[in-house]
Amino acid sequence: MKDAAKRRSGEQKQTDTSQQINGKRPGGGIKEDDGMLSVKVQGAGVDAFEIQVNGFWLVQDAILTILGREDVAPRTSLALALSGVTLDPFTELQSIKGFKAGVTLRLIEEPYSPRSARAHLARVDELLRAASPQDALREGRSPSILNTLTHTPELPPAGHSAKGKRANNRTEQPNEAPPPPDYILPGATELPPLATLLPSSTYTEAPRCLVDLSLSCWNPPPGSRKLQGDFLYISVQTLEGKHCDLTSSPRGFYLNRSTLDAFDPRPAPSTPVCHCLTDLLSQLSPQFKHNFSALRHRPTLPTEESMSTPYPTLSWLGGTALHSHKINYSCRLGLEQGLNTQAPDWNEEIQAARDLPQTTLEERLQRDKALLQVNSAFVWAVAQGAEKVIDGFVDPINSCNDNPAFLWGGLFLSMGGPGQEGLGGERGRRAAQRLELRSIQAYSDLEGDLQALHTLPTALAEYRGLRLSAQGLAPGLQGPDQPGVSRGLLYGFNIGPLENPARRKLLELLAQAAKALSLQRHSVQGPSGYQLPLFTSTDAQGLLGADGRYYILDVFRTMPADANFNIVEGEEGEEDGVSRRFPHGLCRLRPELVKAFIQLKHSQFTKRVRERMEENGGVEECVKAGDSRGTEAVRGACKDVGSVSDLIFEMRFNPNIFSPDVQFPSSESSAVSLQETLLKEAAAFIVNDQIPAFVNDCLQGTEIPIDGATLRHALHQKGINLRYLGHLISSTSQSEHKDRLRHITRLAYGEIVVRCARRIFSGYIQGVELASLSAAASHFLCCLVVPHFNPASNGEESKKRSRRRGHKGGGTADSIAWSSLSGNELWSLICQDALETYGLKQGLGSNVDYLVEQYGIQRLSLLREICLKTGIQLRLRDYVLDNRNKAPITADDVLNLLPVVKHLTMTTTDASQAFQAAQNSLQKGLLEQAYDQLKEAAYLFGRVCDDLHPEACHCLSTLARVAYLQGHPAEARSVQLRVVVISERVLGFDHPNTIQQYALLAVYMFAGGETALALRCMYRAKLLMLTVHGEDHPYTAVLDSSLGLMLQGEQSLQYLQNALKLSTSFRGAMDLTTALNHHLMAQRMCVAGDYRGGMTQEKEAHNIFQSQCGENHPQTKCSSDFLKAITQQAVRVERSIRQGGAELTDSSTPESLAPTAETTLEQLALVNGILKTSYSMRIMEFKEKLKERRAAEEAEKAKAESSIEVKVDEEATVSVKQTEEVNETREESQQEDSGVLEEKAEHSKTGEVESHLKNGDASTENEQDAESSTDQSEIPLTNTVSAKNQSESKEVIMTAKDTLEPALVNGEESKVTEEIMTVEKQAVTETPAQN
């Protein structure tokens, strides 16, 4: 009950925060003050204040809200009283007699218990260790840099001291554009200094209030004092050097007479008993009182910075100081042991959260929040437990050296069992752990009744080269004992036919789950020769726990096998390297690939049905009710595409195909053959369709990965496993546009090297003793990034360090065996691993220099990637990585080695659905509706995850874009400030998404006139881009174009020239993006007075528009008008020069050639992908124009004479007809997949640029009419094919619905109950058609 109250309180506070930031409640729903009452609170030594409470709150909710206030902290153990009567904490406020708005509640100090006294000490310790931005770096977490970078006073909430505000305002006063640093100028040879990545925070550290606060040496209290109420004794040393001994008692805290040498627990004379410890310390130490007051009144961190992230986000860089630590009184007070004596039951907590009601929206939000909180705490516990176990603080619970198991903090941690030789040994074991986590995620995401099928909370932690699988403790098993069968085990390969209601229910759940996951029900040969029907792989087990819940375990083979890497014995892989043997036998398809393959098969099925119907008399004849030709067409199409049913389209996969030691009965031979064919087609689908589609997306600019993480995410979205990286490199190398794909080739090679190096590092670091970890890690990094690194000097230094630490004698040689690794040896191991894993026979060269020279890979980028993947945190300093004579990274540079945790993600159902609805509205061009839906989604995300979630970050970023499009740059700026902080903390301070969010924030700030801040943000984005990838990337063109538009003079031209160069190189010389860059260059040259150069650039732009869009397209016409204006000005300047310079005194640029501020903002929005127009938006604009024209015609009709009424009616009829045509076109175009805001910036230039080439007199008067008429004529041509395909789909659906309705009813899972009855009587094999 108390936890529930805490959750409600936290949600309410977050609700208020979201409402204040967003400005209004989303969707026009309940008003902010509905149900809220204002009450006055006083007493307990605090000044009176007012709070807002809700009538349905419990008293405990109000108390928790009060305790969370800064002016009340760190007081605890308080109660509320009304009219002298203490209120029950678990009573609703609205049920209390006399409770109403404006009532005065009094705080009452309650006696302490031993536990509440320790909780009060913990609260005091938390306050004294006030959070600061530096804490994240100390703990290895990603910090937020935005507040340090901008010094904006808007980020911190109200309540800052005037001094802090004055400091911030003084920083902002000079709004002059700062010049760009030399290291981010185009073509800079030197990389940016690493110190600029994490600038020193201007946020002051918390002042120190005490020298020491710890448990006294006189603890525990003797029996006589315990009977008098002494809980514990606390030792305090003040800043004045005074030593005090305090007593904790039920009444509070007081000073006793004990010293370091003598025990005297009696109260000191003239010393009061204070309920709050800080009140007593303020009386004992004037300096404590002063510093504590300063601590409480200093500016607080923004909400997004002060709150803890749900999951760890590692930072590969730490602080600059070698020795940086923060005082922690909690350990000295013994609070960690005293408050957490009982290990949590993680499984029960997660399952209890899943079982929460979901009837109303409020219940679903509370359930999602509870699930996220429990899973977050579980993941943090796994990270801590992995360190404890591998560092040797926990003893194993078994005697198996190959697979030791550990219990710690309610977690069961194991290595995952010895790897089976048939699965690839150690690599097979790691693959099984990874696939188990992915499959558990698939089962956890099932909705509805399938939530009754439970899985254990699971996470993977990799630390010091070892991977631990962590799970919550499984519940006891429920059920009768049977010979040869585990108690409670109801489903599995070793389970024979059983008849009981529990098994029947479990089979029903498994059948429904198999349908949701596209798994085929099949039969295998059981251990005793009987046929065993299964809905999963043979490894899976189902059981009924003692808690009454059904569980499924060992689901790592859930997804179907990848036929490209499952070579049958006696066969050899293809010479092209696509089909070959893999180091382990657990190559499975990704869920995204299965979904895409089913969609492909469905389109083939639709096409085949139509073809067969046309062959048998036409579609219209076959779809008539009772016509058997329609049924036969569907049956034939099902057989053609490989449907497991011959009655309806149903695509399912057998997870046991290509699995070793699995035998199928002879009755399954046809089904097995069909499944093998399907899996081979699915494997070919990756190579022939998905990889080329990904490459094409990269060419078109819809996918722009910047680092290994974004490349991995983009590939996974297409269903492409990373084992296809070698084939991706082959595809890009053989492409005719391989030079435009060089950034993809660069990233693929870098990802291969880093992943191979990580596998080698895992085995390398396992044999290193604890005292040499930092030296070994630094030595490995040097071998990786320094060509031909000589380990001699580093080894000698390590020996000296080992001797200084006392490691002498025979153990010294073994302890530094890792130092014998050389750069050449490491690179040879990487090449061998790349060949085995990715089929990469060549391309890596002999050392890292080959990658740098051949593909442009940065050593610093490799260093960042390997640190993020292995958990290494380096000191913040510049590293000379091309120095072959001295180790660039030393042992002192390795600050920490952190566990890398892979975990489940909890869904935010309602928030995600609202966000998806908003995205659909954007695709239809409904900006106002999308804006309200985004507000609603942001509110729901705030309720569930406090916005600290990647999807919430994406939602808020989209909200900022829509707000900007609606003409609210201030709101966009406010929201985007939060987005940047969230991205830095949740994804990483140098994550590619953070780079893009900084660029968007710069645009919004520039629109608000904050040029200096905008440039700082854009400089930050360019700095991160150069560090993460380098300059040679298509997104650098976006940043340089933006900088060129924001800056003035020579530097502006410098950035625009580089953007044009990169755009031409990556997008092609005839791409519309390149045309836009030519136009921007022409504009800037005209401003600089170089009209000839501007004319040359605009000619290039005009040629591209004319070639791509046609002579009569508005884009071409607008460019032609601008070119004429430049030509006229160039002729005028030339004439003035010939005439002796008479007119040269007027050197200002004509208004027709100088871009206005509005034009610059539009171009910035276009370049950064903020401003995009889809066909749907243009249709709506044309529709509005038609409405206005019709209204004008009706007004004229009312004034006209009756003789012309007939003519007016005819014109109105024509207008109505045009409007209806536009409506029909709009409905068709709303089916398109192109989004208003969700496409990449470079992909949406067609049909857009004409509205941004306008410059004063250079624009034509009839431009808008031409644009509308052009759009009207273009769109139906575009949508004709789409409408045709849709009509085909509708006809096929009608056929399946009208002629095969009985088959649909009988062919779905409605037969599950009958099948289960058959299974209980006898394991009988059924054909796929009966599924």
TrEMBL record:
Stretches with biased composition (Polar residues): 1269-1286
Molecular function via GO: mRNA binding
Alphabetized CDD domains for the sequence: CLU-central
Biased composition (Basic and acidic residues): 1-14, 1196-1210, 1218-1229, 1237-1255
PROSITE patterns: CLU (PS51823)
Keyword terms of this UniProt record: Cytoplasm
SUPFAM superfamilies, per database record: Hypothetical protein c14orf129, hspc210, TPR-like
Record domain Clu: where: 323-566
Region Disordered, residue ranges: 1-34, 133-189, 793-812, 1196-1290
One annotated GO biological process: intracellular distribution of mitochondria
Listed GO CC annotations: cytoplasm
Alphabetical list of InterPro entries matching this protein: CLU-central, CLU_dom, CLU_prot, GSKIP_dom_sf, TPR-like_helical_dom_sf
Pfam families to which the protein is assigned, alphabetical: CLU (PF13236), eIF3_p135 (PF12807), TPR_10 (PF13374)
Entry-linked PANTHER family: CLUSTERED MITOCHONDRIA PROTEIN HOMOLOG, EUKARYOTIC TRANSLATION INITIATION FACTOR 3 SUBUNIT EIF-3
Protein name: Clu domain-containing protein
